[in-house]
Amino acid sequence: MRGFRQFDAPVCVIVTYDRELASSDDTAFDCGAATTAMVNAAWSRGLGCVINSQGIMQSPVVREHAGIPDNQVIMKAVAMGWPDPDFPANKVYTNRKDLDETARFVGFD
Ligand SMILES: Cc1cc2nc3c(=O)[nH]c(=O)nc-3n(C[C@H](O)[C@H](O)[C@H](O)COP(=O)(O)O)c2cc1C
């Protein structure tokens, strides 16, 4: 349920793209790249982010509240704020797969 409150963050960034770009497979890639860059830039300044779909599940409400024009497709939300290190959920760390499970290096033997 905290996700629907944007984790009580003071800021929610809505990532959108121009409807004219809807048929390009670059669009999702570019939105992800821009969002990753923003999240990393925020983190470099101590700001935490949660990329999330919950914040746009009621996208007509988001569109009206944020004044997003109809030519923009709403893609994702990013909650942003100063992390609370004492909040229990922020003590949870997920494991990552090893590099050799996620990438294949060719010609580097
Ligand atoms: C595209 C996308 C959508 C997500 N949607 C949600 C969401 O709706 N609610 C949520 O709690 N987390 C969501 N997450 C997960 C959080 O962003 C998560 O905290 C983040 O991926 C890092 O967590 P990790 O370090 O445990 O992987 C989403 C992540 C991605 C990449």
Q: Could you characterize the architecture of this molecule?
A:
Helix content is 28%, strand content 21%. It has a three-stranded antiparallel β-sheet, sandwiched between helices. The protein has 109 residues and is an alpha+beta fold. The structure holds flavin mononucleotide. Flavin mononucleotide binds next to strand 2.
The kinds of small molecule bound in this structure are: flavin mononucleotide
Uncertain residue segments:
none
Quick one: overall form?
Answer: flat
Following the backbone from N to C, one meets helices and strands in this order, namely EHEHEH
Structural class by sheet pairing and helices: alpha+beta
How many helices? The count is 3
Mean pLDDT over the residues = 96
**Residue share in β-strands:** 15-25%
Helix content: 25-40%
Brief overview:
Helices cover 28% and strands 21% of the residues. It is of the alpha+beta class.
Describe this protein with a few key phrases.
109 residues, three-stranded antiparallel beta sheet, 3 helices
Topology, element by element:
Blueprint (H helix, E strand, L loop, with lengths): L10 E8 L7 H19 L3 E5 L6 H8 L5 E10 L17 H4 L7
Antiparallel strand pairs: 1-3, 2-3
Bound molecules: flavin mononucleotide.
